[in-house]
Design brief:
alpha/beta; 5-stranded parallel β-sheet; two-stranded antiparallel ribbon
Length: 301
Amino acid sequence: MTDYRFESVPEVREGLRKVDYLSDEGIAGIVYLADRLQKPILVEGPAGTGKTQLAKSVAEMIGARLIRLQCYEGLDEAKALYEWNYKKQLLRIQASGGEGDSWETVEDDLFSDEFLLERPLLEAIRADEPVVLLIDEVDRVEVETEALLLEILSDYQVSIPELGTITAKQIPLVFLTSNNTRELSEALKRRCLFLHVDYPDMDREKEIVLTKVPDITENLADQVARIVRSLRQLELKKAPSVSETLDWANTLMLLGVEQIDADTASDTANILLKYQSDIAKAVREFAADKQGFKQFAPGPK
């Protein structure tokens, strides 16, 4: 009988909260189903919305080892799956000259575990202990490299010509993240449960700020969440991510800010926004809405 990691969706949500990841019902539900159905999760959404952090938090929640494959253009099988330790193999060949070993004996040695270099995918398959496998930014790899994931994600096994088929000792929880820089293949998508993680609504972002930023007041967290929401409604090259929201909140705390005014928002806009055109647009909005900042000012005591 399969041992499931989670008994219910509420248990997942509460477990994530305990490791400071504030999920909604949809996120917790997909994590629960991935465990029950033994299927990977493809997590798509804008950069900085907590896709990678979800995998890290699930690993922390269940006490599993996190194995991460960071994808990039040019990633190949040798860096993702395995390769042979050619230098060590060469030393073995050189040593065999003085030992009088037959070539058959040497060849058997050369393609054994002793000379195998595990990369993240094979490491996750062969692990004895619980594992969360994070395949980060899978949309950055070429279609050919994407294809090598299919066998692993279908059957949790890999084929190594010299060693045969290696089947997983335990089924890892697998998260693939994508920023949608290119369309992933239908074959890959079919093997996964789909989860779209968008920017949180204002109330949840305020709660995230309160959870992640030590000693911040509820009033300041509310101001931060409201201003970030207003910025995301502008036509920007890159909207502020949740991580940038937290950076801004921490910056305001370091500066001793209790009430955000237009000047403070303008002076620190470069923490939230990373393009000069976006910063200029935000500063204009702040200047035009000075009256709006007065809602944050404390009332008479």
